[in-house]
Structure formats: structure tokens, C-alpha cells
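Researcher: Here's the sequence for the chain we discussed earlier.
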Amino acid sequence: MNELLKVKKWGGENAAELELSPQNVVKDFREWIKQAVVVSAIRAPEIKKWTVIIPEFNTTDKLIKIWELLNRQIVNERDILLKVLELREFHLKIVKEKINDTNQSLINEVDDVFEKFENDIIYYMRSDKKIIPTEKNDYSISTNTWSLSILWFWEELSAKVQAIVINNLWEDWLEAEVVNLEWVFDDVEKKKTDSELYSKLSNNISNKVDSILINWKVAIVPWYISWSPNGIENMVWRWYSDATAAMTAVWLSWKNEVILEIQKSVDWMMSADPRLLRWINAKLIEEIDYITAKEITWVRWAQAKLLHSQVLRRQLQVAWIKLHLFDPFRNTKWTVITKNKSETSSWVEYIWARKNIIFFSISSWHMEWSWILANIFDIVKNYKPVDIVSTSETEVTFTIDNDISDDLLFEIQEKIRIKLAFDKDDERNKVEYTKSKALVFCVWQNLSNSMWTLARAATCFEKWGINVELVSQWAKERAMVFWIEWAQMKEAVNLLHKEFID
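Model: Thanks. This is the structure I predict for it:
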């Protein structure tokens, strides 16, 4: 039987969390559970002490500032090296505070990383042939013979710091080691197809992690690869470290029984945004299946801070990996996301709303022509993403976000009208839009007959005088959307939460 392994993604990498997250490692170590920890940049939040405010320190922002300075026509070495020094002092301070020691060898470990980074920056600035860093190339700085990703640097440094913290917890036999991904692409570029590249890369990374786990060490994974051939980074899906933690869990599940833990410094997956509720409390979603959880996270901005939608990928489901969401500062409750639906779940799991929505409505007696929808969305895609679409024999209605100027709205309206050859005063063929609307979503796990939800929601809305302009079955067995006035949005959320969840 495979040994139990927990793949952990620490939340926020807040400097304060370096106290509790390592204690979570100690707890599982005492229970003989192997562990791999995926990290991202360390930062420090704003702190208020009496009348003194210590500002937030965001490593990512500082590194991107270095990139901006490198992009200037006239590069000032002094300004850039001062930014590097600022980063160095912050991370050295964290190490000294967390290990409560001035052991010079440990401090030197962090200092060595900065020295290499500083030398690379200087080499780049003084090189004749350069590749300018951009967001598209992941802020990499390159010459004709050499390349360095600025984004890679923050995770490599974070991994080093966090390994030092764990190794100084005074726990017998507990040891952490950073996974070295520097040569992980050595034999990958010889492969031809995407599947060959993916298979070889995943084997290389899982073998490197396993070589640490086999000695019962905690593997610290700086999951950002600084260089890759053949555009393989697009195939690996490098979006957020939550998502790369999920891929790490998948690759390690071939040899281990894996649980994926995503630790966050916010509440667990809840039945609604607590800020929308009055007199009632949002409920913890204790267990939910992958598909429903993905439905919730895919609703734009809904619980996105809690869990990025790319975490819940198909490979995670195929590997039957359980995902635990919890807050290490509380460590009393959590959300479990599994492959199967919960038999004990309530009908409606989640209620959410989006305000500031614009409804576009296009009416035509010729809506059956297939080219009409194609032309409409070909125009709109250049302005805003479309969220919800509803069609009939003579009309198509869709929604976009409201953060768009009146001039641009009129421009969209006119382009659609002209493209469809509608006259301005034509009452039968027209293009209209309405501002300040809202969408209210109901998401569920076990409902195959949506009429039950629709009937109860309609009765509830009718009783309290909320006018529903349109209802959309957003996904066949997963969600229903009500289009209402913005002014009635909070009332609708509270009524539906009380009706279905409370």
C-alpha cells in the first residue's frame, strides 16, 4: 500500500504565517505523514502599532519594480542595486526573527542567493546583447548566452528561507530540503510531442521530490521553473502556485496516496459572501465535489481569493486526490473537495451575486440566421467578456461588466446595428442596452430537476416584490441565474440564502 503524503500550499506566504504553517508540518511529521510544501514569495502585511504604521512589504511588487527599472532606456545601476538591497534586508530580517538566532551560516545561505541574483543583474546590465524582460516572457532577463527569470528568484529565495525556519524548530529528526529544479529540463527538449514533454517533465520533477521524501525529509518545492524549451511552460499551466501545487500532487500520486492541502488566511468555502448577508450567517461548505466547486470558483470573482479555478483540474479528479481547504490560524474546520457528490449535501450549496451588470438585447425577425450570433460576439469580444447568454427565436440577450464608458457602450451598440444592417428607427430589428443590473446565482450538487429550485425561488421573490427579468439555466444540473435590478440584489441573496440554506 502506498504511504500517505500531504502536498501543502501555504497561504499568502505572509511572514507571520511562518510561525503557524511550520507547526502544521511538525504535527503531521509526528504522525508519520510525508510532506511536500509548495511555496511562493514571502511578504509582510501592513501592521499598526499604536500611532506607527509599518507598511506592507510585497516581494513580488519589488521584483517587478526591478524589471521596470531594467526596461528604461537609460538603466541606472545604483537604483536597481538599492532595490536588491531592500529585498535582501527584508529576507535576512525574517530569517533572524523566525529562527531567533544569529547563526551566521544560516544567514549566509540567504545572502548567497542574493549575491548570485545581484551578479546576474549586473552581468545583464553590462552585456551588449540583451533580451528585454516583458510580462509575456515572464519577466525573464536574457543575453545571447544566458537567461534568468525574475519570477523564479522570489520562489527560490522563499523556499530557502522556509527550509531554514523548519530546520530550526527544535523538533528531533525533522529536516527540510529545497527541491532543486535547476536542471529539470535537461533531457526534456529531446522529446517531440506535448504528451512526451509532459510525461518526461512530470517524471523528472516527481523523481526529484521523491528523492527527498524517501529520506523522510520535508520537500520544499519552489514551483517556478526559470527556463524551459519549446514553450513547455504553457503546457505545464503556470498560473498560480495553488494550481502548481495541484499538479505536484497529481505527479506524486503515482507513487503515493496524496492529500492536497491549500492553506489560506481567509474563511473556508462558504455558502455565500458574508458581506452580502444581513441578520444571518454564511455556512461552511463541509464537503463538495470537484465539478460543483469548480462551478463556484469559475463564477468570476466568486471565492477566487480562496481557490483559483485552475486548481480543480481534470488530472486531480482522475487521480482521486482529496483537497482540504483550511486556515492554519484556526485549524478547526475545513472544506473537503472530493470526486464524488456528497449524499448529505443540501440542495443549494452556494448563493452569490454580481452587481453593476449591463444587459444587451438584440431583437430581429431574422435571428434564426446562424451568422447573427457569430457577428455579435465577434464585435463584443474586443471590448468585454460576455458572461451569460440567453436566446429565443427573435432575440438574444447577454451580459457584460459595467466598468465601461458610455461612449464605448454606444460604439458597441452602433457596430452591432451596422453589422446586422438595422435601421436606426426600425422597431422590429433593434439593439438596446440597460445598465445597473445584477445577477444572482444558485449553485448545487444533487439537483437534477431544476423546477424545484425555480418554483421556490419564484415564490420567494413574488412574496417580497422582487422582479426577475430573466432566468437562465447556466449549467444543466449545476447552476441557475436570476437577472434582477441592482438595488434588489442584497435582498435577493438574503432571501434565497434563508430559503435554501438557513
